[in-house]
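ok so I'm stuck.
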Amino acid sequence: MQIEYKKSYQEYKTELDAELNKSAEGFVRIGYLLKVARDTDILKESGYTSVTEFAKAEYGIDKTQVSRFIHINDKFAEGGYSDRLQDQYQGFGYAKLTLMLQLPDAINEALSPLYSKAEIQTIKEEVDAEGQVSDLERMMEAVPMPTPQEAKGSILNAAIYQLGEDEPELYVEMAAVQTIQELQGAMAPSGERTYSIRIPGTGRIMLMLSDSSDDVNIVNVRTGEKESALWEEIYAAWQQLLDGDGSPEHWEKTYGKEYPKEEPPVAPVQPKPEKSKKVVKAKQEKEKNRINTKSESSSKPPEKPQEEPIEQSVKAQETEESKEIAEKVETETVPKEPENVENTKCEDAPEKIEDQEVKEEAAAGDYEEIIKQLIGNVAFQAFNISEELNEERKELNEYRKIRGMVNNLSCDLEQLIKFIDLSTPEENEEEENEDEE
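replied:
not stuck anymore, here's the structure
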């Protein structure tokens, strides 16, 4: 049987949108009525003792669904307690609103109904991924040397700098952009787009664009803080980064690595990502720069950014020392004096812990005091780096000096991790014995 439908596509879509809007409004109203049952004595004559008991018996709505309806009303109803959906969330539908319950308000406020459920799910995955990175891991990430543009700029400049590295093709394309309209077409070809950008040491930044708005939303996923920038400021940040040259060679000079070459297609030919996609995820390789703070860090040194490798002799020395420490942890039940305390530091690192003092404290098992001193070292070097970065720099040697300071800081952090691991073997063995019992 062939079905005839004489309305145009636009009429059909308008009709479906209206029904979906009614559905979302209905869920908000359901949440409101369930709150009334929860917060008043309306159920007094029913014999039910709670809203969850009532909803389950009368409508088959379980406790989880009741909670979800109520939370939707809390977050998206006018004033957080009414039977009307806020205007800005009209047209999303129940499935999208359910996902948005788990997103920061700053992100939800920048979304539009044009984002699909799958795209909102992708944004949620990015938020969840950032939530897996602890504050300590973030602070211990190997932060690359900032460029003069990034050092002088704001979070917007840092985001554009990182976006240029993550999206080399976009970097080259931006060289031909001369107007705001062309900028919008390049960065948000479908009219809207969200870039998830992970900045080492800062975390994920959501750059949320819409060509229907004069403002661009910049959301810090970790803190939920939101800033606004004009499209003109986005354009200026790109121009500052490109410095009049958006060639692959200039990209290589800016980021200190080879411009990625397009791999030859393998049969069957894989389609390239659509330019119309609304969400661009943060590049996964950035996660490799995180320093591992788990137990395996004592046997495997943290990875360094490929574009700034340390000297092979130092790397070999650190690897060998890590292996020695790992063997001690496995074979000794009581921590003894680390034999290579002096050698665990990188070359040219400033001496801030007296060798004899360290030996005496280690011999006495006073690892807590050593850890405190190492933390002081880390804070001291971080302060010096911060002071250096606040000064205007013009010469390459000045940046190399700061890079050396960053490497020394990384080495102190590695040493701190090793001492933390060495300070707990007794506790670990006691826990294992308890498990066996």
